[in-house]
Specification:
By secondary structure, the protein is mostly helical. Helices cover about 80% and strands about 0% of the residues. Keywords: Membrane, Transmembrane, Transmembrane helix. GO terms for molecular function: transmembrane transporter activity.
């Protein structure tokens, strides 16, 4: 019986290592975008619906930019597009902080700019990972990537949270001044990440056509998973900040809660990324979905400060665990079908984003619908539980997808 070689950094190409380093630097930006922009809106408006409107604007900007990026890739170097995506996140925050009041128009514009940032960043990043890694190394790649993200999610929230609360006084004006300093720091990190990325060498997708409407039946399963994933993304990024600001009214408490859960998540990610293999992806994915369901259940049953802490703790474990399984599954399907159908890999990345977008609209719409016909508290309490329950269906879909994927792969060897 042969010895299976362990995957390590040495198994990545130079360009893949530079991409990992770029993502490490940009990981210091992501917790600010995920957590503190939402808390800034809550602090200055005390309206969860405005947070959701901002999130919807982001999610509308993402697929539009994915589509535009498909055309730009044939004319503009991918390095510039990827770098622009990172820089725009800082631009969006600067625009947000410049608003004299949190108006609906200002929120939509800030959200669309952030959506453009995410669209350029994620559409090109997905392709870059696909181009610079193999199926054998992707568990480790995403384990390493999420380890960086969860590690910065330990440091960044607690530092920023307590800086906002102790370094600028307790007045709203003082805290808002602190947010502006944080925004300046974010912009500096995006510039550094952009500079690092330009040391790599990356090629554009192999063919120019990227827009298709009919795909293999295996891809339809992938789209079903994308829709269910999008359900949670509809408001899961902003839900922790809304809940924490509701029950604790403190960025310091928000930062501490994020950091404690992220420490455990970081350790789990490093171990899973190093030791897990492609055959373990379904089990990892299922465990992540169960953690998400339990998080939403505790929030619904308790709906108090204790429930929020348990919710954030389980969520911080669930999100990276889901990513370490979901993304390699997605990229493996693209690997197989792009060769089988002789299509540009970006065609699948773009189509997948529209699947996510439909799910995000349904997820955000569920929250806004309950908030409109009931109230925001009912939405915060039960919309998460509805979506957490629906997401469990993804376990069955993933099982069917992996079975069809293996069969298709064997037929084409």
């Amino acid at each position: 019986m042969g010895v299976v070689a362990k995957i390590g950094i040495k198994d990545f190409s130079r360009s893949a290592k530079i991409l990992i380093l770029t993502n490490l630097v940009y990981a210091f930006v992501m917790p600010v975008i995920d957590i503190f922009v939402a808390s800034y809106i809550m602090r200055n408006s005390n309206d969860p619906s405005k947070v959701m409107l901002y999130q919807l604007a982001i999610y509308t900007g993402i697929p539009i930019t994915f589509f535009i990026n498909g055309y730009l890739l044939n004319r503009v170097n991918i390095k510039r597009l990827f770098s622009l995506g990172m820089l725009l996140s800082g631009v969006s925050m600067i625009f947000m902080m410049s608003l004299k009041e949190i108006s609906y128009t200002g929120l939509v514009l800030a959200g669309l700019i952030m959506g453009m940032s995410f669209g350029l960043y994620w559409s090109n990043r997905d392709y870059l990972v696909l181009a610079t890694t193999s199926d054998r190394t992707r568990n480790f790649y995403y384990g390493l990537d999420t380890f960086f993200y969860t590690t910065t999610a330990v440091v960044v929230p607690i530092v920023i949270g307590w800086y906002l609360m102790t370094g600028n006084g307790s007045s709203n004006e003082g805290v808002n001044s602190g947010y502006k300093v944080v925004t300046a720091a974010v912009f500096v990190f995006t510039i550094i990440a952009s500079i690092i990325f330009h040391f790599g060498k990356y090629e554009k997708p192999r063919s120019e056509k990227f827009l298709y409407f009919k795909f293999h039946k295996l891809w339809n399963k992938m789209l079903q998973m994308a829709l269910l994933k999008g359900l949670a993304q509809g408001f899961i990024v902003t839900a922790p900040a809304i809940l924490m600001m509701k029950f604790f009214s403190s960025e310091g408490a928000l930062g501490t809660a994020q950091s404690i859960g992220a420490i455990i998540a970081a350790i789990i990610m490093l171990i899973l990324g190093k030791l897990s293999k492609p055959k373990h992806r379904l089990k990892i994915f299922s465990f992540g979905l169960i953690c998400f369901f339990l998080a939403s259940l505790f929030n619904a049953v308790l709906f108090n400060s204790t429930g929020v802490i348990i919710f954030i703790f389980l969520l911080l474990i669930a999100r990276p665990i889901l990513d370490i399984a979901y993304f390699p599954i997605q990229l493996k399907v693209i690997d197989i079908l792009s060769k089988l159908e002789n299509r540009n890999e970006f065609a699948y990345i773009l189509n997948h984003e529209f699947g996510l977008y439909v799910g995000r609209l349904i997820g955000a719409g569920t929250f806004l619908g309950i908030a409109f016909f009931g109230d925001a508290d009912i939405a915060l309490r039960y919309a998460l539980l509805i979506i957490g329950t629906l997401q469990l269906l993804a376990i069955l879909i993933a099982k069917q997808l992996l079975k069809q994927q293996t069969k298709l792969e064997n037929e084409n060897i």
